[in-house]
């Protein structure tokens, strides 16, 4: 099996695992805490619209990755960028996906039952500033962004490019929603934290901090 064939199978396995992981975690947390850890936002809100759009694309990505294993000809319908579809580029995409998964699992393990999918009306239960949150305020969003970049590189196409742009836009909106919820709930403590730690880990002078 060459790198391109391996990448095709790896994408199907990767996104199947992601779907199973999040579904199982939601059920496990409900069983342990007795409450839902999924919040979709109020009807018509930016959070609700963004989550529906993001989830729709995630479902489409999973379906495409699974179907293209037995039907490689599907790539033509996705608008594959053949000059980029090389073993080196596909391999680099898989590296991004592994890095994304590692950060997802680490952050989820660190947060434990404090993890929520979305922001509830009452806001987060506590302000977490240690572990991966000491380097950036939204490590899970960075992890997802790495995965979206990895998906584009592992399957360079019009479809994966649109998925990447939509994903990054939704993550930006969700980060804004979460920052506002944390500000409303924790006030000065959050503003002090946000003043020291960037939303996303960007090196050097490009770090953008929140001023209280």
Describe this structure in words.
The protein has 212 residues and is mainly α. Helix content is 64%, strand content 0%. The chain is built from seven helices and no strands. It has helices at 3-33, 46-67, 74-77, 87-111, 139-154, 158-186, 188-196. α1 (3-33) packs parallel to α4, α5 runs antiparallel to α6 and α6 crosses α7. The radius of gyration is 18 Å and the shape is elongated. Mean pLDDT is 84; it is low at 203-212.
Biggest sheet layout: none
Spatial separation of the terminal alpha carbons: 55 Å
Mean pLDDT, all residues? 84
Whole-angstrom Rg: 18 Å
| Outline | elongated
- Unreliable stretches: 203-212
β-strand number: 0
Number of helices: 7
Share of helical residues: 55-70%
* Structural class label: mainly alpha
User: What percentage of the residues does DSSP assign to strands (E)?
Assistant: under 5%
Order of helices and strands: HHHHHHH
């Amino acid at each position: 099996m060459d790198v391109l064939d391996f990448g095709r199978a790896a994408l199907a396995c990767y996104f199947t695992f992601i779907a199973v992981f999040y579904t199982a975690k939601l059920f496990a947390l409900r069983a342990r805490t007795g409450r839902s850890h999924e919040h979709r936002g109020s009807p018509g809100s930016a959070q609700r619209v963004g989550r529906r759009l993001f989830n729709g694309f995630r479902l489409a990505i999973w379906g495409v990755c699974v179907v293209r294993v037995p039907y490689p000809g599907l790539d033509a319908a996705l608008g594959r960028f053949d000059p980029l579809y090389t073993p080196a580029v596909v391999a680099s995409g898989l590296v991004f996906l592994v890095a994304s998964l590692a950060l997802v699992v680490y952050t989820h393990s660190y947060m434990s039952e404090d993890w929520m999918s979305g922001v509830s009306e009452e806001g987060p239960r506590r302000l977490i500033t240690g572990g991966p949150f000491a380097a950036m305020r939204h490590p899970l969003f960075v992890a997802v962004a790495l995965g979206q970049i990895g998906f584009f590189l592992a399957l360079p196409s019009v479809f994966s490019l649109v998925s990447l742009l939509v994903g990054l836009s939704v993550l930006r909106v969700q980060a804004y929603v979460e920052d506002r919820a944390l500000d409303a709930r924790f006030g000065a403590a959050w503003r002090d934290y946000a003043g020291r730690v960037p939303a996303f880990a960007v090196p050097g002078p490009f770090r953008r901090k929140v001023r209280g």
